[in-house]
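In the design runs reported in the main text, the only information available to the sequence generator was the tokenized backbone. The following block is the verbatim input for one such run; it is reproduced so that readers can re-run the procedure and compare outputs position by position.
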């Protein structure tokens, strides 16, 4: 088939190298794009392409693509498929994998982009350290599509339900991918972090959450040098050991805030933050809201 002219859609920067053009060579109409404040690791892009479209990408993030009904030719990592995609058809492109798609018909698309580091963290927290996202040229998942449409509506309307609602839906989307679109590694890679070791590390941090915790102590639990441990941990969990400690401190702090029986300054001390201001900055950075909004 004759490919439409190529051009770059004004997609969100987090999606990486994604080029998208209509048949006339111009960019598609963007109906929604972006992510709520905070570090959900999930962003959305909804576009409408008139008269045909061409997409080409080597994404920095995992891309989950939903389309309206159309005849589509797609390629991903050397595999190709030409098919009549039904409404809501699903494709999954793994970060770093070349993919492209062509159609001679008008098509509406929703792309959910997921930071691989957040996906790795979610897998670790679900005791699925060895879970690998499966690439798909086609498929159906109505539950994921419903969540994607919710994210699209939030983005298009300026996030009326706030960052916490967005984060909850985004987490649900990642959990759905983990539950239905992953497989375990056939062969365990040398130097991978063991899930039993990760559980020991988590238990240690929680037990000492109000204390100073250094990488050396965590590496000792894992039976590795601090340098090797830091590399293995970041590759498996999607963040450095230090950031993982902060992640667990925040989880505990949020539990205490919502419990409502302790003051914010006391909570900061009890969860290892320097003071209330330090805790507030991390909450704003990660969750996109203030400490008081957490308890609302």
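Verbatim output:
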């Amino acid at each position: 088939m004759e490919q439409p002219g190529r051009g770059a859609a004004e997609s969100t920067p987090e999606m990486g190298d994604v080029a998208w053009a209509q048949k006339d060579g111009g960019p598609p109409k963007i109906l929604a794009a972006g992510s709520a404040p905070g570090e959900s690791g999930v962003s959305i892009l909804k576009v409408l392409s008139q008269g045909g479209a061409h997409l080409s990408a080597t994404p920095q993030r995992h891309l989950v693509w939903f389309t309206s009904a159309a005849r589509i030719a797609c390629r991903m990592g050397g595999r190709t498929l030409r098919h009549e995609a039904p409404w809501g058809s699903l494709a999954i492109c793994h970060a770093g994998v070349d993919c492209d798609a062509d159609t001679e018909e008008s098509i509406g698309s929703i792309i959910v982009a997921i930071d691989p580091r957040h996906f790795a963290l979610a897998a670790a927290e679900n005791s699925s350290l060895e879970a690998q996202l499966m690439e798909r040229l086609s498929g159906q998942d109505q539950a994921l599509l419903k969540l994607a449409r919710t994210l699209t509506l939030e983005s298009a309307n300026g996030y009326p339900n706030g960052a916490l609602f967005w984060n909850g839906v985004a987490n649900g989307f990642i959990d759905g991918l983990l539950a239905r679109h992953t497989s375990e590694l056939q062969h365990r890679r040398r130097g991978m972090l063991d899930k039993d070791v990760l559980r020991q590390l988590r238990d240690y941090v929680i037990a000492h959450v109000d204390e100073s915790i250094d990488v050396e102590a965590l590496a000792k639990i894992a039976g590795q040098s601090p340098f090797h441990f830091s590399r293995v941990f970041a590759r498996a969990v999607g963040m450095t050991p230090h950031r993982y400690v902060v992640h667990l401190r925040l989880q505990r702090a949020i539990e205490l805030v919502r419990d409502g029986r302790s003051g914010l300054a006391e909570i900061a001390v009890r969860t290892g933050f320097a003071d209330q201001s330090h805790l507030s900055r991390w909450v704003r950075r990660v969750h996109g809201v203030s400490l008081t909004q957490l308890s609302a």
